[in-house]
Write a structure and sequence with these properties.
Blueprint (H helix, E strand, L loop, with lengths): L1 E5 L2 E6 L17 H7 L12 H4 L7 E9 L9 H8 L4 E9 L5 E8 L3 H17 L18 E6 L2 E8 L12 H18 L5
Parallel strand pairs: 2-6
Antiparallel strand pairs: 1-2, 3-4, 4-5, 5-7, 6-7
């Protein structure tokens, strides 16, 4: 987990994880190398993601309020991140507006489908720099720019970039010390999207 601050606003950037740091959970009998190899490129994992696969209506721990599947990935990001994901071959943005069932926090979560693991890692590295400098970030479901200081979490996993934007139950800013932030980010990006969805693609 990484905590960045800019000016007087605490800008929380949760868990920058590069490809080498991933926990790979594959099928029984399949080692991390095989799982990583399967997701290393879009050419080796050509089946597009679907909303039902990534954000089903019965998603445990989260209420799914709305979903989106778009080929234009730039709708999911702002500023210099738009040119970055275009340059690295983003072909699909699967997004959802979620509500945490236990705490009521509101989240915009997404998976960006990039060309290969190097592209996903490169974009992930740029996210940290651009979010900290306020030169690029992720959008809300309506394409709106999120306010500076909004907690943003992301992971690069295989040729995918996973992310979430978190606000309070009524859309209000979340205090930097809110203990729900690391828990929600880990549950959504690590336990669910990485281990349950992507690592079990066939």
């Amino acid at each position: 987990m990484t905590l960045l601050t800019r000016g007087l606003a605490a800008l929380i950037v949760l868990g920058i994880c590069l490809v080498s740091a991933f926990l790979i959970v594959g099928d029984e009998g399949e080692g991390p190398t095989a799982a990583d190899r399967r997701l290393a490129t879009r050419a080796g994992d050509p089946r597009p993601l679907t909303v039902t696969e990534v954000f089903p209506a019965d998603l445990a721990g989260f209420g799914v309020r709305s979903t989106s599947d778009q080929a234009d990935c730039t709708v999911a990001v702002t500023g210099d991140l738009r040119s970055a994901i275009s340059a690295y071959g983003c072909s699909q943005a699967i997004r959802a507006a979620l509500s945490a069932t236990d705490s009521g926090h509101q989240l915009t979560a997404g998976v960006l489908n990039l060309a290969d693991s190097q592209s996903a890692a490169a974009v992930g590295e740029q996210v940290g720099r651009l979010v900290e400098s306020d030169d690029g970030s992720f959008t809300g479901m309506g394409g709106e720019q999120i306010p500076p200081g909004t907690p943003v979490g992301w992971r690069a996993h295989g040729h995918y970039l996973l992310y979430c934007v978190i606000t309070g139950p009524d859309g209000e800013p979340v205090p930097s010390g809110d203990p729900a932030l690391p828990r929600l980010t880990s549950a959504l990006l690590d336990s669910y999207l990485t281990e349950q969805v992507l690592d079990h693609r066939t």
